[in-house]
Design goal:
Elements lengths: L1 E2 L5 E2 L12 H14 L3 H14 L4 H13 L3 H17 L3 H17 L3 H14 L7 H16 L3 H17 L3 H17 L3 H16 L5 H17 L3 H18 L4 H15 L3 H17 L3 H17 L3 H13 L7 H8 L3 H13 L5 H5 L2 H10 L3 H15 L5 H18 L2 H18 L2 H17 L3 H18 L2 H18 L3 E12 L2 H8 L1 H21 L3 E5 L4 E5 L2 H22 L5 E13 L2 E3 L1 H12 L5 E4 H7 L4 E7 L8 E6 L3
Parallel strand pairs: 6-8
Antiparallel strand pairs: 1-2, 3-5, 3-6, 4-5, 6-7, 8-10, 9-10
Helix pairs in contact: 1-2, 2-3, 3-4, 4-5, 5-6, 5-7, 7-8, 7-9, 8-9, 9-10, 9-11, 10-11, 11-12, 11-13, 12-13, 13-14, 13-15, 14-15, 15-16, 15-17, 17-18, 18-20, 20-21, 20-22, 21-22, 22-23, 22-24, 23-24, 24-25, 25-26, 27-28, 29-31
């Protein structure tokens, strides 16, 4: 007896015949010997030749399907297994036919062909009696467990997996038991029983790399162990299993699965900062995996490429890879939302990350991997309370089961929130803990990012020297890694710090704040792709008009701009030009995002390219008071600008200013 590579211990080939029989018999015997030597291509060629010369028995066709998998011949793999099903039916072996039907259903399900998978499962059910406890009933319980799991019926899925484990033990089917242990382990991890889940996966994976399982089951089981470690950010444990799996694959001459290991190894290399080599390895691995129809690890590879490109500032290349991952079934978040944040599209980032978190359902760790990004994006959107809630959920999830990397992410997320809340001492404590933890993990990019936050905390308590030290260290690391966007930001902050150490320059400017009205609702109504196009047009148009009007963009503010003009007249004229351009585009194209604009001219402190003072605050508040399509300015600014058509003059109260402020609407139309 030998293993068929799919689960269940059967005779891989038909009964040994003597070489004096039909020509295909010699080839079948030679193929049997090749399989024993793990000479998969040779075995595939021999069985293919035998198949052309005469009909093969069911077990021979199963063997042909297995060798076709290792030869990266998916059409032959599927065809041989389908013919094996019919051969078993014709031979009256209904239990084995049912088993093959289950395998065909699982393959179809893995490829996203849900209806075909359902049809094969019903064929299997009709061939089996209810309440049996054969190995085939065990595999039926296994696939029912998988179906219940993916539709959120977790308790049912757990019970069916436990049933499959029991049947696997009683029937001495090591493959069945390993599949079911891995299923149960993943569900335990997802529901928060992490140590128990890891233990179940380790038990199954030891059998895999020790050669106790069939080649196919061994590869899948070990890869599931590595994926679980990756998802838990337990990179040390993942490295151990990658090494063990690669040794097994070399020993068994298995193609396909090493490509999966290369994806995981490259993911860990990227954490360590070897971005260029990791991307090269990932591109090679995804090409190889495409031949083996390994869609999930292939999707993981494309996502990892996209995330590396994001960190390097290649947003266009990153989005292309993330689209590939999404097409193969991998959620592109949080990487895509973080790209939107880096592009200054805070509302789009907020919409994307909140939707991704909401969709996670019962899988606690899938949600936990998104929460640090949600904290960062909510803070950028000004939602400190929402960021605090996300940080607290992350803390409750990681608990005492956190890997070092997950723990580091939690410290930094909490540090961000505390800094936004004004608790500088608490923020510094958490950020320093995050830096230490990420250093232990060996994640230089995460260390540098935490240093930037720590610099902000130190700067807020006037520790300019300490802040400069942290920023300089972060900048050096960003440059070494090739993190161009982060390096540029750190350079600007260091330059601004130098400016702050000098006396601020007193200047008079007209400050303008713009904002898209109802951007969250618009993003939801249009969808991500259309909303991104609208935002891109909005940003390009406003930047062009601001530059033409003599303004300087100080910074982006979510879905708008903070702009400084040398005079009130230029600010008013530019605001009118913006609203008229939007009106004209709407007449031509049918839609533009509604924009409100607020303007106030005042004296302010300038350090480098930044401005501060009560005048900036008043301008921001005037912008917030404006309505859709309105240009609202303080009356003081309008007088300074000279003759301007106005309407609706009124007094408003502004937080932080004791006396009411007179404002009026510019009649731009």
């Amino acid at each position: 007896m030998a293993d068929d590579g799919r689960g269940g211990t059967i005779a891989v080939m038909s009964e040994v015949l003597t070489p004096s029989g039909p020509p295909e018999v010699d080839k079948i015997a030679a193929a049997r010997a090749a399989i024993a030597r793990k000479a998969w291509p040779e075995a595939f060629e021999l069985l293919s030749a035998a198949d052309r010369e005469g009909p093969l028995a069911g077990a021979d066709l199963e063997a042909l399907s297995l060798t076709a998998f290792f030869a990266a011949q998916p059409e032959v793999e599927d065809d041989a297994l389908e013919r094996a099903f019919k051969a078993y039916l014709d031979a009256g072996d209904e239990p084995r036919a049912a088993y093959v039907a289950i395998e065909l259903g699982r393959t179809a399900g893995r490829l996203g062909k849900a209806s075909i998978a359902s049809g094969w499962l019903r064929r299997a059910e009709r061939l089996l009696s209810d309440g049996g406890d054969t190995y085939v009933h065990g595999y039926l319980s296994l696939i029912r467990s998988e179906q219940a799991r993916y539709t959120g019926r977790v308790d049912e899925a757990v019970a069916l997996a436990e049933q499959a484990i029991d049947i696997g033990a009683r029937t001495s089917d090591a493959d069945l038991r390993a599949w079911a242990l891995a299923n149960l382990g993943e569900m335990k991890i997802a529901t928060g029983a992490t140590p128990q889940g890891i233990a179940l996966l380790e038990e199954a994976s030891i059998a895999a790399v020790n050669g106790e399982l069939s080649p196919f089951t061994s590869g899948v089981t070990a890869c599931r162990m590595i994926s679980a470690c990756r998802d838990l950010c337990d990179y040390g444990r993942a490295s151990e299993w990658i090494e063990a799996t690669e040794r097994y694959c070399r020993r068994e001459a298995m193609a396909g699965f090493p490509g999966v290991c290369r994806v995981h190894r490259a993911e860990i290399a990227a954490i360590g900062g070897a971005w260029e080599q990791a991307e090269t390895d990932l591109r090679q691995a995804t090409i190889e995996l495409e031949r083996f129809r390994a869609t999930q690890p292939q999707a993981d590879g494309h996502y990892a490429i996209g995330d590396i490109r994001r960190l390097r500032g290649d947003f266009e290349g990153a989005e292309a890879s993330l689209r590939e991952a999404h097409a193969l079934g991998r959620d592109p978040q949080p990487s895509l939302a973080l790209i939107r944040l880096a592009q200054g599209r805070v509302k789009a980032a907020r919409t994307a990350i909140d939707a991704a978190v909401a969709e996670q359902g019962w899988n606690r760790w899938s949600k936990a991997r998104l929460l640090p990004a949600q904290v960062e994006i909510r803070l950028a959107d000004g939602d400190v309370a929402g960021a605090r809630a996300a940080a607290e959920e992350l803390a409750s999830t990681v608990g005492t089961d956190a890997s070092p990397a997950m723990d580091g992410g939690h410290h930094v997320a909490l540090g961000r929130v505390l800094l936004a809340e004004g608790d500088v001492a608490g923020a510094s404590r958490e950020l320093r803990a995050g830096i230490r933890t990420w250093q232990e993990v060996g994640a230089p990019y995460e260390v540098a990012r935490a240093r930037v936050l720590l610099a902000a905390a130190l700067r807020s308590v006037d520790d300019a020297e300490g802040a400069s030290l942290e920023l300089s260290s972060a900048l050096e690391e960003f440059r070494r890694l090739g993190a161009t966007v982060d390096a540029s930001a750190a350079e600007r902050q260091l330059a601004e710090a130098d400016d702050r150490r000098q006396a601020p320059e007193q200047v008079r400017r007209a400050f303008m704040f713009t904002d898209i009205v109802g951007s969250t609702n618009l993003a939801e109504a249009l969808g991500d792709a259309a909303w991104d196009r609208v935002l891109r047009w909005h940003d390009d148009t406003l930047r062009r008009l601001i530059a033409a009007g003599g303004g300087d963009v100080v910074k982006t503010t979510g879905d708008g701009f903070f702009v400084a003009f040398p005079s009130a007249r230029k600010a008013i004229d530019c605001a009118v030009a913006i609203q008229r351009a939007l009106r004209d585009h709407q007449a031509a194209a049918g839609f533009v995002p509604p924009i409100r604009i607020g303007i106030h001219a005042a004296d302010a402190n300038r350090r480098g390219m930044d401005y501060s003072g009560i005048g900036v605050h008043v301008a921001a508040r005037v912008g917030a008071l404006a309505g859709s399509g309105e240009v609202l300015a303080t009356v003081e600014t309008l007088r300074e600008a000279g003759e301007t058509a106005i309407e609706g003059s009124r007094e408003v109260s502004v937080k932080g200013v004791s006396a009411p402020i007179a404002v009026a609407t510019v009649a731009w139309s």
